[in-house]
Recover the amino acids of this structure.
């Protein structure tokens, strides 16, 4: 998919568990008037929906004041979305208020705009494909590690969404039989070892059994202050507890990436998300474990890279999502 050639801007909104980010995105990926606001958790989706509508109204007003034509609205959300109906799935962990909400039709009705809605990691994958390192490729995977572990897949030049929007759930690939419990009800999932909250949980569990002078120094002895960046800092300083947890996270994530390689044989896998941004110490071990676990011939042409997109990558993803759906719609 090429960049450029379209007139007007896309109103792009990235919905997260703690905040909503948005902006007007030009065809070359420039983001005008980026905005953020705290997510309102009141009500069953109505608070978040109110924020979305206010966001869209502000962005639309900015575009009209600047005499910029509006192509439409793209929205990325942290959960599965039924592509046929635009309805968010029932198990959206980070924003349960949005569960089962027919978000696309609601936004269309309230704004009068053409709207695209999808999972935020699918959107990130499209951002890498349209604006990032994966431009010009046909087979791409995105792995985002943050409060969860999600995946997006471009297969033969098309976004792979699956029968009900759950394609790419790398976080729920089992990498250890009878391993750590996961919120999904299974055990040994990639997420249970590699997500930010699970990295913190494992460190706290180990600190209940053994001491750590580095972590004690960094937290002042208060385990509630432990965060993924702090764990990576401790690991960089040779702390055995932090090193052990980070090593296990890298191994689990590498095994999940290997499964993507064996199943989809992508040309490129892009690693992103808050945990990857915070932990360069994580990236190279993930590459090594992925090569170790993957079928060698399948992995031979797969590059594993770290995302270079800005911290506004979620907004770029929402714009890329609208652009992708809009071009597919006009191609029919």
């Amino acid at each position: 998919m090429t960049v450029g050639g379209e007139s007007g801007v896309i109103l792009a909104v990235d919905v997260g568990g703690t905040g909503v980010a948005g902006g007007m995105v030009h065809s070359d990926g420039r983001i005008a008037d980026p905005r953020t606001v705290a997510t309102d958790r009141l009500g069953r989706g109505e608070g978040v929906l109110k924020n979305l509508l206010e966001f869209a109204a502000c962005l639309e007003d900015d575009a009209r004041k600047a005499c910029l034509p509006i192509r439409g609205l793209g929205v990325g959300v942290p959960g599965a979305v039924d592509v046929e109906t635009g309805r968010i799935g029932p198990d959206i962990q980070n924003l349960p208020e949005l569960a089962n909400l027919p978000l696309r039709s609601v936004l269309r009705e309230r704004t009068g705009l053409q709207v695209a809605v999808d999972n935020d990691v699918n959107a990130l994958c499209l951002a890498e494909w349209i604006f990032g390192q994966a431009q010009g490729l046909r087979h791409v995977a995105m792995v985002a590690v943050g409060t969860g572990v999600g995946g997006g897949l471009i297969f033969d030049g098309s976004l792979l969404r699956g029968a009900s929007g759950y394609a790419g759930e790398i976080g729920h690939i089992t990498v250890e039989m009878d391993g750590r419990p996961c919120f999904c009800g299974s055990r040994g999932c990639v997420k249970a070892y590699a997500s930010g909250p699970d990295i913190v949980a494992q460190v706290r569990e180990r600190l209940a059994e053994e001491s750590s002078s580095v972590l004690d120094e960094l937290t002042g002895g208060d385990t509630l202050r432990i965060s993924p960046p702090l764990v990576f800092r401790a690991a960089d300083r040779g702390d055995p507890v932090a090193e052990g947890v980070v090593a296990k996270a890298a191994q689990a994530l590498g095994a999940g990436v290997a499964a993507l390689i064996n199943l989809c044989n992508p040309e490129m896998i892009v690693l992103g998300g808050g945990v990857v941004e915070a932990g360069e110490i994580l990236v190279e071990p993930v590459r090594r474990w992925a090569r170790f676990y993957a079928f060698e011939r399948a992995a031979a042409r797969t590059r594993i890279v770290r995302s270079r997109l800005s911290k506004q990558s979620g907004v770029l993803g929402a714009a890329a999502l609208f652009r992708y759906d809009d071009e597919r719609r006009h191609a029919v």
User: Anything to note?
Assistant: The two ends are 16 Å apart (CA to CA). Residues 9-131+311-331 form a domain with the Nucleotidyltransferase; domain 5 fold (CATH 3.30.420.40). Residues 1-5 have pLDDT under 50 and may be disordered.
